[in-house]
Design goal:
Catalytic activity: Hydrolysis of proteins in presence of ATP
Subunit structure: Homohexamer. Organized in a ring with a central cavity.
Structural class: alpha/beta
Main location: cytoplasm
Number of helices: 30
Oligomer: single chain
Number of domains: 6
CATH topology of the largest domain: Ribosomal Protein S5, domain 2
Strand content: 15-25%
Helix content: 40-55%
Keywords: ATP-binding, Cytoplasm, Hydrolase, Nucleotide-binding, Protease, Serine protease, Stress response
Distance between the termini: 139 Å
Subcellular location: Cytoplasm
Strand order of the largest sheet: 1-3-4-5-6
Amino acid sequence: MATDTDKTADQAPTDQAEETDRAILVVPADALVIVPIHNAVLFPRMILPLTIARQPAILAAQQAVKSGSEVGIVLQPNAEIDEPGPDDLFQIGTVATILRYVTLPDSSHVIVCQGEQRFRVVEYLPNYPFPVARIVRIEEPEDADSEIEARAIRLRERAGEVLQYQSQVSPELLAAVRNITPAGALADLVASVSEFKPIDRQRVLEALNLAQRLDIVLDCLLQRLEVLRLSREIDERAKANIDQHQREYLLRERLRSIQNELGEGDAANAQEIESLRQAIADAQMPEEVATQAGKELRRLQHMADGSAEYSQLRTYLDWLLELPWREPEPDRIEIAAARKILDDDHFGLEQVKKRIVEFLAVRKLKPDGHGPILCFVGPPGVGKTSLGQSIARALGRKFVRASLGGVHDEAEIRGHRRTYIGALPGNIIQAIRKAGSRGCVMMLDEIDKLGHGVQGDPSAALLEVLDPEQNNSFRDNYLALPFDLSRMLFITTANILDGIPGPLRDRMEIIELPGYTQEEKLEIARRYLLARQIDQNGLQPGQIAFEDAALQAIIRDYTREAGVRSLERQIGAVCRRAAVSIAEGTMPSMHVDEGALAGILGPSRYDNEVALRTGLAGVATGLAWTPAGGDILFIEASRTAGEGRLILTGQLGEVMKESAQAALTLVKTRAASLGIDAGRFEKTDVHVHVPAGAIPKDGPSAGVAMFIALASLFADLPVRQDTAMTGEISLRGLVLPVGGIKDKVLAAMRAGITRVLLPARNRRDLEEVPAAAKAHLQFIFLDKVDDAVRQAMPARAAE
């Protein structure tokens, strides 16, 4: 018999089902047939139906039924393994008796098992078509400790609470939990009937120490109890909300029926209210906003359509619904693409574009960070607004512009309260509504031209808007609700910094945009202005052609500005003349050269003023800074017989008048070194005039030019025509630094100057000067006014 059995076991793997049907395999007395189960744990004294689907488990169950022997029920943690090995099963299981074996119509197998005793696997035996293992049975410990009894009492209480939360729990089960005496059996029963995870039940099965087993069951029960409590609270809240909605619906339907009976019902109005209610639900508003919108909608529902308050309330709800409350989409930033966009849209401005690329790179690496508020400062026409549009394109965001020029009422920023007739939100909220996204790029244009009146200070209202730490709850007076501006990107523009209040300037990073050189203007005209004006005037690219010499002549003789707006207007005038000729049929196309400009644009508007005005003694060329960029400034001095008076004309400011007085005093103190008879000052009246008298002028930077003009006047020596100068002077003869060097240098180059005298302490400012200007101009640095005399008056230096 033993030999046959061994032979049958060796042949079993070749045809498992056939061998099992023919013979019952012999299992040693100290071994058990193991049935792996992956989704349940059987405890001693418990009856549990188990579904088996894998072939080894089916063969093992059939072997136990045929032999009438017990089986070992063991948990398999990984259900993906079809034929688990020893390492794929837990080592502690339950000895069980199969009470019933059922094959269902869908070919699945179910065994009803009764747990008998815990066991530990010693080793698995080979050459069986199903798992067989030698085991050691584990005896149940006895209750012999007051601590065990205390834990058991606590467990009964918690188990009763958990079972009451679970659905379909019979009273008999509750009674069994309350009346069962052995503590180990109590722990096994509670773990079996509670909704524990299989791995937690396995932990209970493996806890051979009784106190440890009770603690594990208590911990799992407490976690389960907390989950069940939260779940019941959520269900109760949901049920209460549903009941409230049903109640409101029924009351609303009754009210509508009553209004119809009274002849006051309006189906259109009811439909409108319902559409507004649905729109509020779909708008994804914050809780506070949605609550306020629902409150206002209920007020609107009980108002007559013809009342004034109905119209105001409906407008308010429309504003709430049209504002973008949803979370904006994340930025799509590609640094290489951003560089290309900036290069395609703007020529030059290398330092500015470099800073913008840095800004975008930081934004990409830290999307939730609060970057600086960029403020583009520069003369008109240099591309401040278009830079903001390029940033929006690089970020993949919408662009919107809000003009602040001339705004003098705080309500223009924060909005008017709804108590006023015709009240509206402020410019910020209006611009966001226009953009349709609260993650747009908003340009606050002309921030230096904010006004200040009796209605408040708009710049103070902007402090909150431009502060990333505060604007996440910006409150417009009209909405009277918080609106999150922290995801928006604000960019501001200005012509001068002096008009921006200090606290507001402190919130922004200043990026200065210089004026363009003639070479840059020529390239901008080629790349952008020509194509735009040809399209705007209805021409085709082949119907008009500009020579480079013609464009250079327009830049040199018909415009003198830091930007390119006037240049584009002149190009547009030429294109309009071509459009007239082509429309009349007098010519199919036009070729524009330098000689044709006088017939189209008229005579040259700008002459070489430097050559005309600087050939006489007493005339010097200075450099000035204006909000429109740099400019040249002529200082003219004349003397007549008199009593030593100083006359100043040209609408000079107080600082510039003081510079003229200091320059005259300095010339008197240096009369000997300049070869001037000191007695001439007492018998001479000096008249200093700065042309363009209709334009106010002020500042200390004309001090060097005034000193050279007066020295030239009294020494009867002319100043070099190719030289311009800037710098403040002191009574000790020192040349002090001034601002606006970059703009002044570009103005000198536009005017045909080749030599520029600058204070020595302004040497570092040349880093910002374009390379084309550095190549065109010769820079001479001054420490004292004596250096200026040697460079500007070569005849005096030769003596």
